[in-house]
Design a protein that fits this description.
By secondary structure, this protein is of the alpha+beta class. The protein has 15 helices and 9 strands. The N terminus is likely disordered.
């Protein structure tokens, strides 16, 4: 009881005087949180990086309730994904990227709630001749910062958004000061070019001043305590859970992808089978079925089922296909979207023309083409198909022919082969029905 009273009194005092002084690094605080779920370490991280998170949310969102929801959702994602932060010295840059994506998702939801009217930076085309307001320019700068390569973005966040000196940034990044200065110079050059392309010419001095204006906002004790409650699993609102769910899903998908996140949370999804444009899987799927390699068939390799039988099965795939039905994680893709996607098979390759993107809960078609190898095992029930990615990774699936229709179900979490043709209640599983196009 005495300990509980002491903790309560400590929390009240912190609410009055602000965060306790601590000399621990982000790496040390992160380690304390990951290994011991140390509440005080989490609170110190909120005090340390909350201003950065709040500043991003305030620049993108108009309504204070939306800002607060985005703030809490960012730290809810930290609670669930802190173990994925590969470089402890980049905790601030990690918070910046997550907060930016959460704020974009909150903005998309707010726009739908308000009737879909564009706001702020959305009114200005990338090359609009009209000058941007300061608020719009700050949003554009956040967008371009997010597009920078990580090695350039990290020192910018540390020096401009968190106010560290170049010596402090060099120590945090474990790099020579000269290297940090070079990265900062190249980051400014890239930002100047991209802003100029969007109709805003800024000198190096002006850009530095603008970056400095993106500095941290003032975090209140109430916001910090709200984030601590989130960490303890108490008082998490439905809206905060909804915001975090969408971005958590996107972060999960990013494990599969070799490239950078797309702007505005557009997540590339492949055609037909629903193959995401992610080549390097975080974990390899395992399977003891040892399906027959198509390349081996071309060499006339003999399997237990016989080469002729497998060649005959592969010939069923050959041709052009259109999508007539598609689901992912139990969510149905609208027919008017799915029907724009095309897919072609040879006996060795699958070519996917068109891509499916999701942003703000809606599916749209993107202009993408991808070619990938595959292998099959028609002796399995259901019949097995593997999509072969880079670095010997593979996605496990099943397939079935019914006349001119082909059904496929693929597990993109790379955990196990589906056993039935449905994605309902199965996170990361795609179900697709294709129809052969007549020549």
């Amino acid at each position: 009881m005495a300990g509980q009273h002491s903790n309560t009194l400590l929390a009240q005092l912190r609410g009055i005087v602000g965060p306790p002084d601590a000399g621990e690094s982000d790496a040390e605080l992160l380690e304390r949180w990951l290994t011991r779920r140390d509440e005080s370490a989490f609170e110190l991280l909120v005090w340390r990086h909350g201003g950065l998170v709040l500043g991003v949310c305030q620049r993108i969102l108009r309504h204070p309730p939306d800002v607060e929801d985005a703030f809490q959702a960012t730290f809810l994602i930290f609670v669930r994904k802190a173990s994925t932060i590969s470089k402890a010295a980049s905790v601030g840059a990690w918070f910046y990227r997550v907060a930016y994506r959460i704020a974009l998702e909150a903005k998309a939801q707010a726009r739908r709630r308000d009737g879909g009217s564009p706001t702020m930076v959305e009114r200005a085309a990338p090359c609009s001749p009209d000058p941007l307001t300061l608020a719009e320019l700050r949003q554009v700068l956040d967008e371009e910062l997010d597009r920078l390569p990580e090695k350039y973005r990290r020192p910018v966040v540390l020096c401009y958004l968190e106010g560290k000196t170049t010596d402090e940034a060099a120590q945090a990044l474990d790099r020579p000061r000269g290297t940090v200065l070079t990265w900062l110079a190249r980051a400014r050059e890239k930002l100047q070019r991209r802003l100029a392309h969007r109709g805003t010419e800024l000198s190096a001095v002006a850009l530095g001043g603008l970056l400095g204006s993106q500095a941290q906002a003032a975090v209140t004790p109430a916001l910090v305590q709200g984030a601590v409650k989130v960490a303890l699993g108490a008082g998490v609102s439905q809206q905060v859970q909804l915001l975090s769910k969408g971005v958590l899903w996107a972060m999960w998908l990013s494990k599969l992808k070799y490239g950078a996140w797309a702007t505005l949370l557009l997540l590339g999804i492949g055609v037909g089978t629903g193959l995401f444009w992610h080549r390097a899987l975080a974990a390899d799927g395992t399977d003891d079925s040892a399906p027959v390699q198509v390349a081996q068939l071309a060499k006339g390799a003999k399997k237990a089922t016989g080469a002729d039988e497998i060649k005959k099965e592969l010939e069923k795939f050959v041709g052009d296909w259109k999508i007539v039905e598609m689901e992912f994680s139990g969510q149905k893709v609208p027919a008017k979207v799915a029907e724009q996607l095309k897919e072609s098979f040879t006996t060795e390759k699958l070519t996917m023309v068109g891509g499916l993107a999701q942003g703000g809960g809606e599916f749209v078609v993107t202009d993408r083409t991808e070619e990938i190898s595959f292998k099959i095992d028609p002796t399995k029930r259901p019949r097995a198909i593997d999509l072969l990615l880079a670095n010997d990774k593979k996605l496990l699936g099943i397939y079935e022919f019914k006349g001119d229709a082909l059904r496929m179900c693929i597990d993109y979490a790379a955990t196990e082969r589906p056993t039935e043709f449905t994605s309902k209640g199965k996170e990361g599983v795609s179900y697709t029905v294709l129809k052969r196009e007549k020549k």
